């Protein structure tokens, strides 16, 4: 969506893309942390005025929620992996590998934008990030249940903890290849877990 920014100066109003603006904000939040990014910093980076920012997004907190949603939908989009007909083993392997690559993709924005902000605990932004992380876990759990995976909650927890570890390791400076090795090893463990649980259920 494109929005006109109305200015008192002469000429046509300048336009800006909401999605592009959210991407700029997401990158700033990811690199510096929510609490270290002011509205003034956001408007300068996006190239709009403060009134236009508030008109388009409502508040810094609402803008942050948009950034969380944008990150979730574009960086490791669950709908790409957790699709009907896809085997749980393949879906989780591909998702973990994609996460490993994404978490090491940029030298100044390492780790998971959502999971790292969720560590802020009871702050407003930490709560929003935790909520989004919980929604993503529920999406994964729903997929596992619909796929008939034995003990789906345990599998979802294992994947969630693995992604937390990958994010933390990326923040510590681990290289992509090392993270991918861990992701692939975790996927093999998941294969064994799901295979053993399936045998027990018969």
Short description:
This protein has 202 residues and is mainly α.
Oligomer: single chain
- Which residues sit in consecutive blocks of at least 5 with pLDDT less than 50? 1-13
Proportion of residues in extended strands: under 5%
Q: What does the main sheet amount to?
A: 2 strands, antiparallel
Keywords:
single chain; 202 residues; Tetracycline Repressor, domain 2; two-stranded antiparallel sheet
Question: Could you describe the 3D structure shown?
Answer:
- The protein is mostly helical and 202 residues long.
- The chain has two domains: 59 residues, Homeodomain-like (Arc Repressor Mutant, subunit A, Orthogonal Bundle); 120 residues, Tetracycline Repressor, domain 2.
- Helix content is 70%, strand content 4%.
- A two-stranded antiparallel ribbon has the order 1-2.
- A hairpin with an 8-residue loop joins β1 and β2.
- The longest helix has 26 residues.
- The protein is elongated.
- The N terminus is likely disordered.
